[in-house]
Amino acid sequence: MNSKQITPDIILTDVKANFFGGQKRKFLPGLLIAIIRFLRRLNATGGKYSSLTEFHKDFPLVTKKKNGAGVNTFTVTVDGKDLAIRKDYDAIANFFRNDNHRYDFPSSAPHATQAWRDYVSWIEAILSFSDDSLDKLEQDVIDYVLGALPSQAIDPTTVKRDPPLFLQYLQSFDMTSRAGEPTGAAYQGTVFGYIRADAPHLQVEVGKVRTGSKREKRVGDIDARDGEKLVLSAEVKQYVVDEDDIGEFSEFSKLISQHQALGLVVALGFKGDAAKNIAKMGLEPLSRDDLIERVRIWDPLKQRIAISAILYYANFREQNSVLYERTRSFITSCEVSNLPMSPKDPINAEAETADE
Length: 356
Hints:
The structure is a single chain. The chain is of the alpha/beta class. It has two domains: 3-148, no CATH class; 165-355, Trna Endonuclease, Chain: A, domain 1. 47% of the residues lie in helices and 12% in strands. The chain has 15 helices and seven strands. The strands form two sheets. A five-stranded mixed β-sheet has the order 3-4-5-6-7, with helices on both faces. A two-stranded antiparallel sheet has the order 1-2. β4 (222-226) and β5 (229-241) form a beta hairpin. α13 packs antiparallel against α14 (321-337). The N and C termini lie far apart (91 Å). The model is unreliable at 339-356 (pLDDT under 50).
């Protein structure tokens, strides 16, 4: 069809016919709008040029780069500089995809913009169209794409945030033993939850506090095994470990060395060079703050596994209703508020030590 016979309605019909069917060129709306905006930026529309040949007298077509490589996209020389439609295509693709969440619209600008030579008749027709006609054509194309492609926008009001429960628990749960709770049980359950969630590939075993590990054939308070092989073991201290406490871990260190396992000493904190000296024993010191930093990047589902393990420990291993109800009440309050908890104030080392 001669370009003089092409009307905005004919172009719109052609775009629609090839969007899903025909040549299956879903990029056509973007290419068309890019061409319109490109020519209007050059102030070349409205009948100033009778043909593309006349247009190129003022805006020479660029076919090669300075290095000799070929130029595929519609590019012309303007005041000594090369100007192409790529910027205009990127803008309309961004409008459809990011601003309006039509992610089915193609973003392949190089593929789309190199097809311009198939639509020279469109370009010549666009050069003759008035501003009003071009405004309407562009809006009609935009309306068509927005209507034809489903929005993939997420409605924030329909998304319920899953709170980071274990992080909130580590930050804010009071580890001080209450009346009716065995001393140290709260933190032992916490560390069990941490290991259970962090090492789901291992069999994690934990006993009651003040139950001898040897009696239950465990190395530490919490053991994690791959079959019969000990992979990880943890000694849990619900207090701030001082340098004077280092001797408590001598036997644990020897057993860890014999098993060639990873040994953890998990305390509420460490004073002075306690952590450094524990590390010299071939053990890994972990404080409550260390756990917080590690758990901070856990996804909510992994954090729920840790919480479930803590509740299991309190109810079935420790079998302590006071600790279980206190833990469950705290978790319920976090779920109801669905808001991040404020970090707990720094641990009072003397009070926690006295509690132990």
